[in-house]
Design a protein that fits this description.
213 residues, five-stranded parallel β-sheet, binds 2'-deoxycytidine-5'-monophosphate
Length: 213
């Protein structure tokens, strides 16, 4: 852009390896890592905590208007600040994943987070990952990558990640949840998961993180 800042956009379904790739690129290049999924997850956590009904437009508008979400990098770790408190650990549960996917179909939610995401790109060069980064948030991004992997491989990765975090999970259930979420994220009307025409597609199914990077 006019400030000499660059944008790398990484989109794809859950478990394709977006976060791993985005973190590595950000570290190597000295760019800011913007995990947009974490922002949808933070808002979803608040929806769950307050017990707000997604179909209740007035309550949702009130909730969004009274919520602050920010990403901070402290000593190499990503902090996800929801109303000033770090919720990075709490947002990585299957329950929050599903609520984030549902809430992200709403126009009021997307409009607010889009604004915050564009603000972040004013802080410096960024690597942003999500579902609509190359298509909607930053269509002008200098580099666009669409990361894919088979559903079975993505479920295996997500399963290992949840298990590693000490959560009790089931592989079949993880696969079912991933497929349900991808279907919803791809079929919604607003900013669905889609490969931008000018994105480079990488299938990470049989590559490790080093090879993809
Ligand atoms: O990448 P993730 O699994 O942390 O994202 C959680 C949910 O948030 C995902 O199911 C859909 C939604 N999301 C979105 O709609 N747009 C984005 N740019 C990022 C995430």
């Amino acid at each position: 852009d006019e400030g000499g800042r660059l944008i790398i956009a990484i989109d794809g379904p859950s478990g394709a390896g977006k976060s791993t790739l985005a973190k590595r690129l950000a570290k190597e290049l000295g760019f800011i890592y913007v995990d947009t999924g974490a922002m949808y997850r933070a808002l979803a956590l608040k929806v769950l905590r307050e017990g707000v009904d997604l179909a209740d437009d007035a309550s949702m508008a009130r909730l969004i208007g009274s919520t602050t979400i920010d990403l901070r990098h402290v000593d190499g770790a990503l902090q996800v600040l929801l109303d000033g408190a770090d919720v990075a650990a709490e947002i990585r549960t299957p329950q929050v994943s599903q609520m984030a996917s549902k809430a992200s179909a709403l126009g009021v939610v997307r409009a607010r987070l889009l604004e915050l995401q564009r603000d972040m790109a004013r802080r410096g060069s960024i690597v942003a990952e999500g579902r609509d980064i190359g298509t909607v948030v930053f269509p002008q991004a200098e580099v666009k990558i669409f990361l894919q992997a088979s559903a079975a491989e993505r479920a295996r990765r997500r399963f290992a990640e949840l298990q590693g975090a000490g959560q009790s999970v089931d592989l079949t259930e993880t696969l079912r949840e991933i497929e349900e979420r991808d279907k919803r994220d791809s079929e919604r009307d607003l900013a669905p998961l889609r490969q931008a025409d000018d994105a480079l597609m990488i299938d990470s199914s049989s590559f490790d993180a080093d090879q993809v990077t």
